[in-house]
């Protein structure tokens, strides 16, 4: 039997990038570039003719920008899209908007000074395109339609939970927003590790802050105390851990080696919570490719923490949550729309 090859359409106005992306993708036997397009209008016609499994889409193009094309595509014919983005402030804002619209993930656009520039990113590009071909597309559409969760004044943190840890990867930027924007403003401190490029982390935290009743910030310094009603997002190139100093919890940043190929790593964050807080913590692992976070969640569970994992139906990519469930680290399996209620009920006993 012949192996199925995922069909890819490359959309980019640069002939150089079209060539480089094509060469990178076709270096893998499971991928076949079935077409290229220089602008969204050409892409639209080729989609009709060749019905690709995945599209790689440049953000900035003539005639129609990538965001407007993505909006049209997700409304009329949803399919997996990987954005090709510049690692700049503008590129970060536009890419985060693309993920909100429905793009599965993004890869950075390297310098076009040489053919080796994009080759350095080849493994990431190939793996993300293959992952996107199997992703659940369109999961973000209903996430933000759920009502906010409120609490009565008589409710209080009966079990004394001190910290909540949330970990995510592919699909996580919108999954995290779908959870955090529904939470009341007086939750225990929440620490977040999302696999994201360093240049995108600050804009991501600010985007969450605008959407939430909680105060969201990127962790930028050592000894940042964990405060009720605040969310702390790991920077894009350092591990975030929670440390206990004389009964007070603080954020700690580490430049130690990547874990499961990631820095920041969800495993590192969860493990630190297990060690410093134990049973007075809650851990939830959300959508993502791979297995990062699964071992750390198991460690939390073994110390008496309350743990949960996102279910397959609502995950863009059911990798990290699946492994956590298989290892026995998740006490509950939840649809994304159930996570905010789960957290509030755990803390306040609604």
TrEMBL record:
A Pfam family: CheB_methylest
Response regulatory domain residues: 7-124
Its EC number(s): 3.1.1.61, 3.5.1.44
Modifications the protein undergoes after translation, according to the UniProt entry: Phosphorylated by CheA. Phosphorylation of the N-terminal regulatory domain activates the methylesterase activity.
InterPro entries (UniProt xref): CheB-like, CheB_C, CheY-like_superfamily, Sig_transdc_resp-reg_Me-estase, Sig_transdc_resp-reg_receiver
Domain annotation CheB-type methylesterase: ranges: 157-350
Compartments in which it is found: Cytoplasm
Active-site residues (renumbered): 169, 195, 292
Catalytically driven reaction(s): L-glutaminyl-[protein] + H2O = L-glutamyl-[protein] + NH4(+); [protein]-L-glutamate 5-O-methyl ester + H2O = L-glutamyl-[protein] + methanol + H(+)
Keywords for the protein's UniProt record, in alphabetical order: Chemotaxis, Cytoplasm, Hydrolase, Phosphoprotein
Listed CDD domains: CheB_Rec, REC_CheB-like
Residues with 4-aspartylphosphate modification: 58
NCBIfam families per record: PRK00742.1, PRK12555.1
Family according to the record: Belongs to the CheB family.
Domain notes: Contains a C-terminal catalytic domain, and an N-terminal region which modulates catalytic activity.
Name under which the protein is recorded: Protein-glutamate methylesterase/protein-glutamine glutaminase
Gene: cheB
């Amino acid at each position: 039997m012949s192996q199925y090859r995922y069909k890819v359409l490359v959309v980019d106005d640069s002939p150089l990038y079209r060539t480089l992306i094509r060469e990178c993708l076709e270096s893998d036997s499971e991928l076949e570039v079935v077409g290229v397009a220089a602008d969204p209008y050409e892409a639209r016609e080729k989609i009709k003719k060749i019905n690709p499994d995945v599209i790689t889409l440049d953000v900035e193009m003539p005639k129609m920008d990538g965001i407007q094309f993505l909006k049209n595509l997700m409304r009329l014919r949803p399919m997996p899209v990987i954005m090709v983005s510049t690692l700049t402030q503008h590129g970060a804002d536009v890419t985060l908007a693309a993920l909100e619209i429905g793009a599965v993930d993004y890869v950075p656009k390297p310098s076009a000074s040489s053919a080796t520039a994009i080759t350095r990113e080849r493994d990431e590009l190939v793996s993300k395109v293959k992952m996107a071909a199997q992703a659940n597309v369109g999961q973000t559409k209903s996430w933000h339609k759920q009502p906010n969760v409120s609490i009565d004044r008589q409710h209080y943190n009966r079990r004394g939970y001190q910290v909540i840890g949330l970990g995510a990867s592919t699909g996580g930027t919108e999954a995290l927003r779908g959870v955090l924007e529904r939470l009341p403003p007086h939750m225990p401190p929440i620490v977040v590790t999302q696999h994201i490029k360093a240049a995108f982390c600050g804009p991501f935290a600010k985007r969450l802050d605008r959407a939430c009743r909680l105060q969201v910030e990127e962790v930028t310094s050592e000894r940042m105390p964990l405060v009720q009603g605040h969310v702390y997002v790991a920077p894009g190139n350092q591990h975030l851990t929670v440390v206990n100093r004389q009964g007070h919890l603080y954020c700690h940043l580490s430049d130690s080696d990547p874990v499961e190929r990631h820095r920041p790593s969800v495993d590192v964050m969860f493990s630190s919570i297990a060690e410093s807080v134990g049973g007075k913590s809650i851990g939830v692992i959300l959508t993502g490719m791979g297995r990062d976070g699964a071992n750390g969640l198991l460690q939390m569970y073994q110390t008496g923490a309350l743990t949960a994992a996102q279910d397959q139906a609502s995950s863009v990519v059911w990798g990290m949550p699946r492994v956590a469930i298989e290892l026995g680290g998740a006490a509950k399996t939840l649809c994304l729309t159930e996570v905010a209620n789960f957290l509030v009920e755990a803390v306040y006993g609604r």
